[in-house]
Amino acid sequence: MRTLNDVQREIDQLICEEWHSHYWSPLASLARLTEEVGELAREINHSYGEKPKKAGEEGEIASEIGDILFILASLANSIGVDLDTAFEQVMAKYQQRDANRWTPNEPKQER
Length: 111
Description:
Layout: H1 4-18, H2 26-48, H3 61-79, H4 83-97
Helix pairs in contact: 1-3, 2-3
């Protein structure tokens, strides 16, 4: 099974060694990430919302999520963020903060 670090290394090898290129600036990466999230939103809207696709329009949710993962890992590489560590830290935060937030088989309270 691949770890997030494996994903980061694979992307680094592709960009730096195979493409002989460099990472985009953090702001350019953020713009690309925002664009990809918009494309995911469009696919979700087509699949689960009220807006059907136009004739000839292509795309799929899994592909858009993959694009987001690629750009996010590229951004992390460019600014020195270890995604495995970041994910472990955020899971610990959510597990502690939200430990009693949702309980199984308990009806949700209306607001």
